[in-house]
Each structure stands twice: as C-alpha cells, then as structure tokens.
Amino acid sequence: MNPNATQVAIVYHSGYGHTARQAEAVARGAAGVEGVESLLISVDDIDQHWDTLENVDGIVFGAPTYMGSASAQFKGFMDATSRNVFAKGGKWANKVAAGFTNSASRSGDKLATLQQIAIFAAQHGMHWVNLGLPPGHNNSKSTEDSLNRHGFFLGAAAQSNADESADVVPPLADLRTAEHLGARVAEVVQQLAAGRQALALTQKAA
C-alpha cells in the first residue's frame, strides 16, 4: 500500500463466501474515492496484520449474522483485540469505523450484529460512520433494486438465499449498498484528515 494515500482496511469473516463478496464491494467503494486505498483482511489471517491496522486511517468491520450475532470466528477476532490493541494503549483510538453484515433471512437479527460491532468500535475509541441512506424498498413504487432495500441505518445489510452460492447472492442492490458504505467511510476519513491538518496549522501559527 502507498504510505502517502488514505488507507481503509476491511476486516471480515465469511463462512460461505457471501459476506466476502460484500466485503469486496465495500473495498471497491472505498478505493473508488480518489486518493484512497483499501485493504481486504480476513480474520483468518489477522495475526499477519495487527501492525498494518495500527497505521490505517479507517477500519470497516464485517461478519455474517449467525444465530443473532456475529459469527464465532469474527467474535474470536474481537476478543483478540483486547490483548493486541486495547491493552496496548488504544492503538485504534480516533480511527474511523463502520460495519456490515449478511444473513439468509431478510431481518435475521442483523441489527444485533451491527450494534455488536458498533459497541466494539466504541470500546476502541473509534468514530462510527453510519450508512447514510434512507430506507430503500419501503413503498409501492420502490423495487428490490433500491439501495438499502432492507432499511438499515447503522451499517450495510445484505441478504443471501441459503440455497444459493456466493456466485449468485448477495443481490446487486446489496453489493451497491456496501459500495456506498465504503465510499462514505473513505470520504469521512479524508475529511477528518484534512480537518486535523488544518487545525494543526492553525495551532502552529498561533
């Protein structure tokens, strides 16, 4: 990665490949913002990336929703941050954070997973970015192709039919919603960086 670029990492777990496609969409959205690079990190490989995560500007967290919460593998990553990040003096404090999740059911209690991830980010002193979209498919004139078709606000939600492979689902609307989240996070990261730089110059001049 270019050390001079704004950097956004996407840290995720995917059990069957569906959430991986959602993560890839978030990464595309972030990298689509000029001056931003994105990095995909599976929690399966997290031990190789602790140092990298200390240096990125924002982290978007994603996991499938299993039985009303983030997957056990993602929860294992969350627990590992207690010794690799939290205990080392808040290495992620003031970074930007956001979240996404996927399940087979329309609701599937995905909100519980997004809340779990948001609280996790707050424990690390991170700045949470919401989805920033109105509800999509909520009236007779809207369609399944609408962004945020599931009507989530806290983060990006996707639905993948349990009997279809990751080659088919999540649907394009859900992937475009994930791309929107990635771009929104990248823009907020850049805005915060510019504001911090301007503040530093003002303080130096004073």
From TrEMBL:
Keywords: Flavoprotein, FMN. It comes from the Bacteria. InterPro entries: Flavodoxin/NO_synth, Flavodoxin_CS, Flavoprotein-like_sf, FMN_Rdtase-like_dom. Its cofactor is FMN. PROSITE patterns: FLAVODOXIN, FLAVODOXIN_LIKE. Residues 8-155 form the Flavodoxin-like domain. This is Flavoprotein WrbA.
